[in-house]
Amino acid sequence: MSAETVERRVTAVSLLFAAAMLGLLGFAALRLGISVPNHVTTVKPFTEGQLIQTAPGRYEAHVVSKMFSFKPDPLKIPKGSLVDFYLTTTDVVHGFYIEGTDVNLMAVPNAVNYAQARFDRPGKYRVVCHEFCGGGHQDMVGTIEVTP
Ligand code: CUA
Predict the structure, then answer these.
(1) Contact at 8 Å (CB) between 128 and 99?
(2) Which CATH class for the 40-147 domain?
(3) Contacts of residue 127, Cβ cutoff 8 Å, sequence gap at least 6
(4) Is the whole-model pTM more than 0.85?
(5) Whose CA is nearest to atom 1 of ligand 1?
(6) How many Cβ atoms sit within 10 Å of the Cβ of residue 106?
(7) Is the pLDDT reported for residue 27 higher than 70?
C-alpha cells in the first residue's frame, strides 16, 4: 500500500469520527434534550445581585462581580448585622476582599462561593478585587455601608 493510500484512509477515518461525533451531539441535543448547563448569572438572584433581609439583623448578599464592579453596590446594612455572602461572576475570575474582615473570596465563573461576616463597627468598608482581571482592575472597588 502506497503512502498516499494510507494517508487517504487515515483522513477518511478521521472525518468519519468527526461526523459521528457531530451526529451524536445533534442526537443528544435534539432527541434526548440534553444541553450544557446555564450560567449561574442567568438565575435569580444572580441576574442582578441582591441584598435580602432574612430576619432582623440577618442578611444574604448575593453579589455578582464583573469587569469592573460589584453588584449591588453599595451594600447598606445596620450595625451588628450578620451577613451571608454568596459570590459569583459574569465574566472572568475576580477577587472579593472586605477590608477589616476575614472575608476573602474568589469569584469564579459558574460557581458560587460563600463567606459570613458580622459588622459590629459602623462606617464604610471597602471591597477590593485582588485578582488581576483586566484593564480596569485597579478601579474595581465596592462599598459596604454599615449604619449606626
Ligand atoms: Cu476584578 Cu480585578
Answers:
(1) yes
(2) mainly beta
(3) 70, 73, 96, 97, 98, 99, 141, 142, 143, 144
(4) no
(5) 94
(6) 16
(7) yes
